[in-house]
TrEMBL record:
<comment type="similarity">
    <text>Belongs to the class-III pyridoxal-phosphate-dependent aminotransferase family. HemL subfamily.</text>
</comment>
<dbReference type="GO" id="GO:0030170">
    <property type="term" value="F:pyridoxal phosphate binding"/>
</dbReference>
<dbReference type="InterPro" id="IPR015421">
    <property type="entry name" value="PyrdxlP-dep_Trfase_major"/>
</dbReference>
<dbReference type="GO" id="GO:0005737">
    <property type="term" value="C:cytoplasm"/>
</dbReference>
<dbReference type="GO" id="GO:0006782">
    <property type="term" value="P:protoporphyrinogen IX biosynthetic process"/>
</dbReference>
<dbReference type="Pfam" id="PF00202">
    <property type="entry name" value="Aminotran_3"/>
</dbReference>
<dbReference type="InterPro" id="IPR004639">
    <property type="entry name" value="4pyrrol_synth_GluAld_NH2Trfase"/>
</dbReference>
<protein>
    <recommendedName>
        <fullName>Glutamate-1-semialdehyde 2,1-aminomutase</fullName>
        <ecNumber>5.4.3.8</ecNumber>
    </recommendedName>
</protein>
<feature type="modified residue" description="N6-(pyridoxal phosphate)lysine">
    <location>
        <position position="275"/>
    </location>
</feature>
<dbReference type="InterPro" id="IPR015424">
    <property type="entry name" value="PyrdxlP-dep_Trfase"/>
</dbReference>
<dbReference type="InterPro" id="IPR049704">
    <property type="entry name" value="Aminotrans_3_PPA_site"/>
</dbReference>
<dbReference type="InterPro" id="IPR015422">
    <property type="entry name" value="PyrdxlP-dep_Trfase_small"/>
</dbReference>
<comment type="pathway">
    <text>Porphyrin-containing compound metabolism; protoporphyrin-IX biosynthesis; 5-aminolevulinate from L-glutamyl-tRNA(Glu): step 2/2.</text>
</comment>
<dbReference type="GO" id="GO:0008483">
    <property type="term" value="F:transaminase activity"/>
</dbReference>
<keyword id="KW-0663">Pyridoxal phosphate</keyword>
<keyword id="KW-0413">Isomerase</keyword>
<dbReference type="GO" id="GO:0042286">
    <property type="term" value="F:glutamate-1-semialdehyde 2,1-aminomutase activity"/>
</dbReference>
Length: 436
């Protein structure tokens, strides 16, 4: 580190830190989207956060609509979560043995998400989806899975797969390092297109273990499911003997208290959770039907484990977060604040003659710069004006509003966003639209 030059007189602290970070960490970040490659420029290095606000290393404040990519539904540095973490840490950081808090947490999660008879804690959303898919394969004795173009379920090998050249060709790896032999078991269908799913089942009627789906797609910006989509997936799974895995890592406890499955009234066999379930600590979970979950080690043959799974500090944070999120009025406020933001942005966009579509459900939203009437699948997203989004992103950043640094990510509201924060965001957006 002594070899790292000191740029501090010439550059902002974020620029200096980013220059240093790039020498030591690939791309300067520990998760790619943070590097601002989707929008260009230098990422903000964050020093602290409170409520709806982030404060960067140069001391500037931003209204935050990223919320640590979803977990911060209550706002940053929530006192109940902070105190629970401090309290738990005072009793020890990890025991590698069961604790009472794990039982309390399992009970709370299964109460809040009634399709989950049983739950297993892990350390990330990726672990949750990876383990749920292994379980589905082990339970059904089938290898293939269906995922949807534009949906992201973490970075396990078989989930980093894009569609082959024809809709029904076998999947192609999305990343070097993913063997084609793994990717070929992943079939990629089009979101909101039940015909493409039926065709996949008809081509492989006995081979598909599960469908995994984001019930509101939040990794290609924000695409809600059309009315028949989730019920249609449920019936196709029933018809062909496959399991339905709803990936609620993003939507869980955000779109509604019981997740998107409650909001859209659809019953999965397995659910994946992450983000909010840890209140900002690294937690994921998967769970569902008792007969399926009992196939998991040690009761069943499907192996899954974790040194730090159910970690006492993380469980304390998650329990405090879910307890606070379960209070009456939380989801109503999240939805109302998101509605206000969406309506305000649309209004000022129209006034400034900027064609804009805003999708939103519960506490998540997405902005699309497009002339289209609606945006309902990945192909629609790719037709939007990404260059215009990039300019808008940087103008908003200058205005002190932190949006997700990519045209392909959803925005997240928190209950800490006040009417004044939202009005400031809309006023800032109007000034930015005027400059586009
Ligand atoms: N599933 C969904 C829907 C996600 O949005 C994400 C991450 O953004 C994941 C899974 C992976 O979660 P993690 O980043 O915690 O591994």
């Amino acid at each position: 580190c002594a070899l790292i030059p000191d740029w501090s007189h010439a550059m902002s602290k974020s620029e200096t830190l980013f220059a240093d970070a790039q020498r030591l960490i690939p791309g300067g970040v520990n998760s790619p989207v943070r590097a601002f490659t989707g929008v260009g420029g230098v990422p903000l290095f964050i020093e602290r956060a409170n409520g709806a606000y982030l404060y960067d290393a140069d001391g500037k404040a931003y209204i935050d609509y990223v919320g640590s990519w979803g977990p911060m539904v209550l706002g940053h540095n929530h006192p109940a979560i902070r105190n629970a973490v401090i309290d738990a840490a005072e009793r020890g950081l990890s025991f590698g043995a069961p604790t009472e808090m794990e039982v309390k947490m399992a009970q709370l999660v299964c109460e809040l998400v009634p399709s989950m008879d049983m739950v297993r804690m892990v350390n990330s959303g990726t672990e949750a989806t990876m383990s749920a898919i292994r379980l589905a394969r082990g339970f059904t004795h089938r290898d293939k899975i269906i995922k949807f173009e534009g949906c992201y379920h973490g970075h396990a090998d078989h989930l980093l797969v894009k569609a082959g050249s024809g809709a029904l060709t076998l999947g192609q790896p999305n990343s070097p390092g993913v063997p084609a032999d793994f990717a070929k078991h992943t079939l990629t269908c089009s979101y909101n297109d039940l015909d493409s799913v039926r065709a996949a089942f008809e081509q492989y009627p006995q081979e598909i273990a599960a469908i995994i789906v984001e019930p509101v797609a939040g990794n290609m910006n924000c695409i809600p499911p059309q009315d028949d989509f989730l019920p249609g997936l449920r019936s196709l799974c029933d018809e062909f003997g496959a399991l339905l895995i709803i990936d609620e890592v993003m939507t869980g406890f955000r779109v509604a208290l019981g997740g998107a499955q409650e909001y859209y009234d659809v019953q999965p066999d397995l659910t994946c959770l992450g983000k909010i379930i840890g209140g900002g600590m690294p937690v994921g979970a998967f769970g569902g039907r008792r007969d399926v979950m009992m196939a998991l080690a040690p009761t069943g043959p499907v192996y899954q484990a974790g040194t730090l799974s159910g970690n006492p500090v993380a469980m304390a944070a998650g329990f405090a977060c879910l307890t606070a999120v379960s209070q009456p009025g939380v989801h109503q406020r999240l939805t109302e604040q998101t509605d206000k933001l969406a309506a305000g942005l649309l209004r000022v966009a129209q006034e400034e003659n900027i064609p804009l579509v805003v999708n939103h459900v519960g506490g998540m939203f997405g902005l699309f710069f497009t002339d289209a009437e609606s945006v309902t699948c990945y192909a629609d997203v790719t037709r939007c004006d990404v260059e215009r989004f990039k300019r808008f992103f940087h103008l908003m950043l200058q205005e002190g509003v932190y949006l997700a640094p990519s045209a392909y990510e959803a925005g997240f509201m928190s209950v800490a966003h006040s009417d004044e924060d939202i009005q400031r965001t809309i006023d800032a957006a109007r000034r930015c639209f005027a400059q586009l």
